[in-house]
Amino acid sequence: MVSSLKALSKFAAYCALLSFVSAHQNLHEFYVNGVTVGYEKCMRRPPSNNPVTDVQSTDIRCNVNGLSASGTNPVPEVCAVNAGDEITVIWDTSSHPGPIQHFLYGPISDALTADGSGAKWSKIDVLNVQDGKMANVIMMENGGKYTFKLPENLTSGEYLLRSEMLALHGAGVIGGGQFYIGCMQLKITGPGGDCSPKFSLPGIYDASQPEIYIPDVYNGFNTLTYTAPGGPVATCTAGSGSGSTPASTTVSASTTRMTTAASSSITPSSTTATSAAASATSAVVAKYGQCGGAGFTGSTNCASGMSVV
Ligand SMILES: [Cu+2]
């Protein structure tokens, strides 16, 4: 009871700051196994740091103008990572109370053009409360950083990695929950596998569900027992990735990106001979390869540890 009240008073204190602190937030950078990919690299960038509040809008996928990499601030880069890698996202620090969670969309053939449609999303990570602090507070104390791991059991291919911070300070009214969203564009090399359940966005959120609409948010809401919307974290199992397999994706089909000279290829464990594309193994881009690519006019000076494909 005491800790609950304490949390509530903290919650109120944070909210009181909102009147004079600009606390909107954006995702700006991510690290892979402790190495940055570079500022605002390999991610879709919205036109502002405003939240998405309509959970039935396609903006809920990858923020405003986020249905491809060529939105408001085009970023034609895909970063190569491995299944099981440690990802650290860096958000603007925010006093908005709420959780952070991560979702994977894929595998898909092209992370630059994928619009996030269809039931290919899985929740892979969530942090609600730890040691009596909501996720945003933990991140404030850590410079906006938050670290989690990609699933070990993933089929090779391209993916969108969606980072979501839900701010609850306005959740006392329907439509007042604020979704801050950033989508990263990844090419994941993995041993095979698939995550379940999968769902569509929009599709899993309802504006009136108790994790988003909290009538007592300033009058009894217990942050310590809060859980983010979207259900539990997916289970990702090895082997047969039903449905899409990398056999149907051909990275080389794109002329807008650079591939390295890596000659290794992937044999999807779940591919059957019935797929006409099964022989078209995806070119694997060396993890520590080059940055940039045709059509990419930005800096090609990427940090070691990452490649842009
Ligand atoms: Cu804000």
Automatic annotation (TrEMBL):
Q: Any idea what this protein is called? A: AA9 family lytic polysaccharide monooxygenase
Q: Which one Pfam family would you cite for this protein?
A: CBM_1
Record flagged with keyword Lipid metabolism: no
Q: What's the catalysed reaction? A: [(1->4)-beta-D-glucosyl]n+m + reduced acceptor + O2 = 4-dehydro-beta-D-glucosyl-[(1->4)-beta-D-glucosyl]n-1 + [(1->4)-beta-D-glucosyl]m + acceptor + H2O
Residues covered by the CBM1 domain: 287-306
- The Auxiliary Activity family 9 catalytic domain is annotated at 24-220
Q: What does this protein do?
A: Lytic polysaccharide monooxygenase (LMPO) that depolymerizes crystalline and amorphous polysaccharides via the oxidation of scissile alpha- or beta-(1-4)-glycosidic bonds, yielding C1 and/or C4 oxidation products. Catalysis by LPMOs requires the reduction of the active-site copper from Cu(II) to Cu(I) by a reducing agent and H(2)O(2) or O(2) as a cosubstrate.
GO cellular component terms, semicolon-separated: extracellular region
Q: What InterPro entries does the record tag this protein with?
A: AA9, AA9_LPMO, CBD, CBD_sf
Q: Which comment does the entry carry about domains?
A: Has a modular structure: an endo-beta-1,4-glucanase catalytic module at the N-terminus, a linker rich in serines and threonines, and a C-terminal carbohydrate-binding module (CBM).
The cofactor named in the record is:
Cu(2+)
Q: Which residues form the signal peptide?
A: 1-23
- This protein's source sits in the domain of life called Eukaryota
Q: What is its EC number?
A: 1.14.99.56
One Gene Ontology biological process: cellulose catabolic process
Q: Where in the cell is it found?
A: Secreted
